[in-house]
Amino acid sequence: MNTEHSQINSTNSNATQIPLAPHPVLTRHYSSAAERVHYIRQLFNQTAVDYDHINTWMSFGHGEQYRKEALIRAGIKDGDTVLDCAAGTGVIAAHAQSLVGNTGQVIALDPSPAMLAIAQQRGVHCTVIGIAEYLPLPDKSVDLITMGYALRHVADLSVTFQEFARVLRPGGRLLILEMVPPPTRFGRIMSQFYLKHLVPTLAWLMTRRRDARRLMQYYWDTIDQCVAPAVVMTALETAGFNAVTRTVQLGLLTEYTAAWLSDSD
């Protein structure tokens, strides 16, 4: 396990920021930035029924337990109000529900109605259609924000992080799970072989659906083209977050954590 730390004083989260996309336009999938949202929503709607199955075998059956353990490491507690942003099929949201208890609340937000329908079948109580850049939540209303493997799908990291800061209460926490290719040449070659070539092929063979293969091709392309972790951490700091930390598990899995101390500092 490897951990990186960074801490600065809180800054004004309303400061004007230059748009910061997590990756360039992926012309293999869509031709312009304006087409990105429609493409992603359609792709995830089409693959919702197969999504959990693909992720289970892709993670060798350990994905759900890893997410639960990450929530515990992030300090989730009984009574918390949690926003699971880009919740997908509700894996993180369901685990969060069990951890916040009857006095807490978990809001699962996602732009894909089909994904949220699966989350509801999983037992997630509160689902909301929406995107990270425009959270339909009041200021200072959330204790913990989680985002699992979806940071690569937002349009603007700066706006997203400012929205996170807006809805977090003072003392609130942020947990972002992502995949980042290992820094070593061997590690990158192995992750590229697995995620770029093997996983999309197996997704097609197991589902016989071309859109499942396309989803996993898109998955790798966003990982491969995503901005460096240092850019993500700097963007969090610029939005006013403190104690920004990146922890690496198994060379590929990244956990970004941060604290929101106050919007008046």
UniProtKB/TrEMBL annotation:
Keywords: Menaquinone biosynthesis, Methyltransferase, S-adenosyl-L-methionine, Transferase
Gene3D superfamilies named in the record: Vaccinia Virus protein VP39
GO annotation, biological process: menaquinone biosynthetic process; methylation
Residue span of region Disordered: 1-20
Composition bias type Polar residues, residue spans: 1-17
Family matches, as PROSITE patterns: SAM_MT_UBIE (PS51608)
A GO molecular function held by the record: methyltransferase activity
Protein name: Class I SAM-dependent methyltransferase
